[in-house]
Amino acid sequence: MRKPKIVVLGAGYGGLMTVTRLQKQLSVNDADITLINKNDYHYETTWLHEASAGTLHHDRVRYSISDVINRSKVDFLQATVEDIKTDAKKVITDQGEVEYDYLVFALGGESETFGIQGLKEYAFTISNVNSARQIREHIEYQFATYKNEEEKKDERLSIVVGGAGFTGIEFLGELGNRIPELCHEYDIDRQKVRLVCVEASPMILPGFDPELVKYARAKLEQRGVEFHLGTPIKEANETGVLIAKGEDEVEEIKAGTIVWAAGVRGSSIIEKAGIENMRARVKVEKDLRAPGHNNIFVVGDSSLMINEEINRPYPPTAQIAMQQGETCASNIVALLHGKEELEEFTPDLKGTVCSLGEDDAIGLVFGKKLTGSQASFMKKMVDNRALYMVGGPSLVFKKGKFKFF
Ligand code: FAD
Ligand code: NAD
Fold first, then answer.
1. CATH number of the domain residue 217 falls in
2. Deepest in the core among 80, 192, 318, 397, taking most CB within 10 A?
3. In the chain, how long is the greatest CA-to-CA distance?
4. Which phi and psi (to 5°) does residue 40 adopt?
5. 3-state class of 175 per DSSP?
6. Total tally of structural domains belonging to the chain
7. Does the C-beta of 207 come closer than 6 Å to ligand 2?
8. pLDDT (tens digit per residue) in 8-49
């Protein structure tokens, strides 16, 4: 008898959780499972701010997919997904077509530029291993060039970060530690380097606990971060950014490095495939299926779920992507066993921890506020837990963070 084909797109948090749970729950005879991912490695997206600043080598944030999948049960195809033909139940990749009976879409999100002029051309984004490596190398290049040029351009040393959400703040926290090291390495006066954060809202980390936000802002300011709040970036160009001040005023901030960290949307493949979406995110049913597609599950940053308590979407996080992966796997197993009732997904939010560099952080965990080394310890535990959930203790020993104090 022909075995059902399960195809999982993306080996990020959502995809790997789905696959590792499927390989535990299904035998070789139950189904053919194929995992498709652009690279032969998984990267911890949640650590990319460290690789981007250069405080953690990019090889530390990635591990080989073959370390965590059971090759006797899962076929891995290294390929870039280009489209999905839902009527024909086919995934189109740069390596050919792949047929499916059940599809799990877990290709993550993409940077949202809101159509702001110049961002695509002149700003970097913290999106994957290669973009992180490019940011780190670009900053170093600016320092090296500054040191070597006769007519010094101080603005070369300015770094503008667009957005003071969690990504922007975590990146600035790393830069706060990295810039003094770079200044030392390149014999550059620290006062010459500007770290500028431009945020459209009147506060950093909008919506997060005000006391913790105050702590984070003070700690980053102590390390030389300048905040421009209530000032959206209007344009990026070769020399820096234009920010809106009030109704009609615009100010220019010159910078040699612009990093755009002001939000994410879903995968453009969702739009291309014609699956109903809002900014490339699929408002999934409670069982994680795409409306109108009873064989397509969407997990992670390309899915959208409303938190009914506040009538707003849940933020796209690794925490939710991993939990969705578990439910998605159970639901596929249920379908294979002929069950009609599927599990409804409800996020079990344990809290949020935002790092402010190697040994500082803020966090709200199980309702408790944490700051400083306690919060930083918790952040590393969260990072290690994510490894444990996918690859067990061996992956934690291989890739985990153990420098606690
Ligand atoms: P991802 O983990 O992004 O994985 C998507 C995978 O799909 C990748 O392997 C990618 O290579 C692959 N892929 C993409 N397109 C294609 C294609 N066309 N073909 C083939 N493969 C493709 N969340 C938290 O909960 N806690 C945190 O502390 C936290 N910190 C963060 C820090 C930073 C710097 C950033 C940027 C985000 C952070 N997040 C955090 C958010 C979190 O990383 C995302 O919500 C999470 O990665 C989403 O998981 P995912 O499985 O949807 O996608
Ligand atoms: P975000 O949407 O959370 O924050 C983006 C920020 O950019 C907002 O504060 C917004 O006001 C600002 N912004 C938007 N347009 C702007 C403009 N034109 N100029 C200046 N500022 C502008 O995005 P993010 O920080 O990339 O986070 C994405 C997701 O990843 C979120 O769900 C977040 O919770 C999650 N994340 C979590 C952690 C953590 O838990 N430690 C870390 C990073 C990211």
1. 3.50.50.100
2. 318
3. 74
4. -90, 10
5. helix
6. 2
7. no
8. 999 999 999 999 999 999 999 999 999 999 999 999 999 999
E-strand spans in 106-255? 110-111, 124-125, 159-162, 195-199, 225-229, 233-237, 240-245, 249-254
Q: Which residues are catalytic?
A: 170
329, 322 contact by CB (below 8 A): no
* Mode of pairing for the β-strands spanning 90-93 and 96-99: antiparallel
Q: Report if residue 135 sits inside a domain.
A: yes
92 & 125 share domain: no
Last residue of a domain, one of 317, 333, 348: 348
Q: Which of 46, 97, 348, 389 to mutate to test the pocket of ligand 1 (most atoms within 8 A of CB)?
A: 46
The 10 Å CB-count burial string (b at 16+, else e) for 247-260 is eeeeeebbbbbbbb
pLDDT in tens, 116-153: 999 999 999 999 999 999 999 999 999 999 999 999 99
Q: Does pLDDT of 245 surpass 90?
A: no
Domain that residue 380 falls in: 114-261+350-405
Specify whether the backbone of 263 is left (phi greater than 0), alpha (psi in -120 to 50) or beta: left
The C-alpha angle 259, 350, 59, rounded to 5 degrees, equals 45
Tokens 């139940």: give the residue.
89
Cα of 166 from ligand 2 centre, angstroms: 5
